[in-house]
Amino acid sequence: MADEIEWNVLMRTCPSRTSLAEIANKWTAMIVVVLGAGPLRFTQVRTRVDGISAKVLAETLRRLERDGIVTRRSYDEMPPRVEYELTTLGHSLAEPLEALRRWAEGNIVQVLEAREAYDLRPTSGGGRDLA
């Protein structure tokens, strides 16, 4: 049945929109890129994704697990060990996100120059015309 539905992320009622919003989240993208190299423990993910809080990481990993992008594996050992790993679906997402990461890193100088040029432009009427 799901294959018969025509999904359209641009429609506000389409469930694919919530999926896109989750994927577009900066923490989600970074976590998926980091896990693309293989399974990691919580603290390893947190170390590699600089600046993420433990709370936000835990919440994001739970959402990714719920969406079938990440799997959580607990090991019955002392001390307890938990690892997170991309699923097949997660690996299919890692490739385009890795391409976005490479684009961002490869073009940041041009983006920063464009921002600076934009910010230095004179404004008229106290703001920019969005029309």
Please supply descriptive tags for the structure shown above.
3 strands, globular
Give a nutshell description of this structure:
The chain has 131 residues and is mainly alpha-helical. It is 56% helix and 11% strand. It has helices at 15-24, 26-35, 42-48, 54-66, 88-120; strands spanning 40-41, 70-75, 81-86.
Biggest sheet details: 3 strands, antiparallel
Count of separate structural domains: 1
CATH topology: Arc Repressor Mutant, subunit A
- Figure out the total of helices: 5
The fraction of residues assigned to DSSP E strands is 5-15%
- Over the alpha carbons, how many angstroms does the gyration radius reach? 19 Å
Major sheet: arrangement of strands: 1-3-2
CATH level 1 name? Mainly Alpha
Task: Tell me the series of helices and strands, N- to C-terminal.
Answer: HHEHHEEH
CATH architecture: Orthogonal Bundle
